[in-house]
Design a protein that fits this description.
By secondary structure, this protein is of the alpha/beta class. It is built from eleven helices and eleven strands. 36% of the residues lie in helices and 21% in strands. The relative contact order is 0.22.
């Protein structure tokens, strides 16, 4: 299975910059953030704003929440974990890998069906949708349906609508939601299921429908400091995620800000 990760150039440049300490930043503290792939663009901008304001350095690792959770449980040096699902944060908390009292829900999102191109015809997502017929012999791109949050939400929604059995043989699973987005953007799959915020940063796809909220669990992003955090700036960065400056960025990228 081929995996792609779609990122805006400035975000990739930002991450690369954060990984190299310049002489001017040598004395500044660093914070390492493990975050769900769907946060790549928005969190990159939030981190850029925080670094400009404080002079500190933020280092980001973006991947599927399930992979990041397992890495943290295995001792990966993350200071902060931001998951795209409550269940994976529960797993990390249950294994004793979160700092007590730091967990909070910060964001919400929406699940959508996307198609390749900018002018795809909209559809109504309900029990009458012939998604299998729309796909024909082609594939539906989804993140891993049994572990990655976007895939789990997508499978739950299709199951609730009675569509999963007919679509399951046609699903092409990707390691994370951004890889699923790339499959559709590069026309390797005509349709995919991603978050609305992912579709908003990709010019080569269009949203053709939104899954009813009642078909899947609420899409919630919890954040917390890890038990093994060593950065003196971990709490400051966590607090910044809910600041007024960060809120404006989250909303610009289409996230719902909680609390």
């Amino acid at each position: 299975m081929r995996t792609f990760l779609s990122r805006r150039p400035f975000v990739a440049a930002l991450t690369a910059l954060a990984l190299v300490s310049s002489p001017l930043r040598a004395a500044a503290d660093e914070v390492t953030v493990f975050a769900a792939a769907s946060l790549t663009d928005a969190l990159g901008v939030v981190g850029e704003a925080w670094m400009a304001e404080t002079g500190n350095t933020a280092i980001f690792s973006f991947a599927g929440s399930s992979a990041l959770a397992r890495q943290i449980q295995e001792g990966a040096p993350a200071d902060i974990f931001i998951s795209a699902s409550v269940s994976w944060m529960d797993e990390v908390e249950g294994s004793g890998d979160l700092r007590d009292g730091t967990r909070r829900d910060i964001l919400g999102n929406t699940l959508v069906l996307i198609a390749h191109g900018q002018d795809a015809a909209p559809v109504t997502i309900d029990a009458d949708l012939d998604l299998a017929g729309m796909l024909g012999d082609e594939r539906l791109a989804m993140a891993l349906v049994d572990s990655v949050p976007a895939g789990v939400y997508g499978k739950a929604a299709l199951t609730a609508l009675g569509l999963w059995d007919s679509v399951e043989p046609l699903v092409a699973q990707a390691d994370n939601v951004r890889a699923a987005l790339a499959f559709v953007a590069q026309n390797e799959a005509p349709y995919g299921i991603v978050y609305a915020t992912d579709a908003a940063v990709q010019d080569d796809v269009s949203i053709v429908g939104t899954f009813p909220a009642g078909t899947h669990d609420p899409i919630t992003y919890p954040a917390a400091i890890t038990a093994q955090a060593t950065s003196g700036q971990a709490q400051a960065f966590l607090d910044y995620l809910s600041s007024g400056a960060a809120r404006a960025i989250w909303e610009e990228y289409g996230f719902t800000v909680l609390n």
